[in-house]
Specification:
By secondary structure, the protein is α+β, with helices and mostly antiparallel strands. It contains 5 helices and 5 strands, in the order E-H-E-E-E-H-E-H-H-H. It folds into 2 domains: 90 residues, no CATH class; 45 residues, no CATH class.
């Protein structure tokens, strides 16, 4: 879960974190049957300066959310009409990427520019590549 608050103060982030972690209720399971949840379905919440620290940047960086949270294992957020989104989580099976690279030191930030280059697209179109100067991996065919 990522959230940017209209009030970007630490007090607002701390309030939102406390609210989310204190919110329990009833959702539904995969079959639509009622199922209790705790802490808004979250296992960990980084708020304000802790969110900036998690991403290794300064407080107030507009690219960093005020709240960054991990869902509890097995939780998928929906809007009552089906799944809203699912982009993985903090579990190892969500983070492990099947990728084999030999003879090179690789940063995960290099994966997207490399895939774009392999597709014949310009990695320079990515804002992060422009800002950080990320290089795609060398291609040995």
């Amino acid at each position: 879960m990522i959230m940017w608050l209209s009030d970007r103060s630490q007090a607002a982030a701390d309030f939102a974190k406390a609210y989310l972690l204190g919110h329990n209720g009833i959702g539904n399971d995969i079959n639509g049957a009622p199922r209790a949840y705790t802490a808004s379905g979250l296992s960990k919440v980084y708020a304000g300066s802790a969110a900036a620290g998690f991403f290794g940047t300064r407080v107030g960086d507009p690219r960093v959310p005020d709240l960054y949270a991990f869902a509890q294992h097995g939780v998928v957020f929906t809007g009552g009409m089906g799944k809203l989104a699912e982009h993985g989580g903090a579990d190892p099976q969500d983070r492990n990427v099947p990728l084999v690279i030999s003879g090179a030191t690789v940063e995960t930030t290099q994966i997207a520019p490399t895939i774009l280059r392999l597709l014949g697209l310009s990695p320079r179109e990515l804002q992060a590549v422009q800002i950080e100067g990320t290089k795609s991996l060398p291609l040995n065919h």
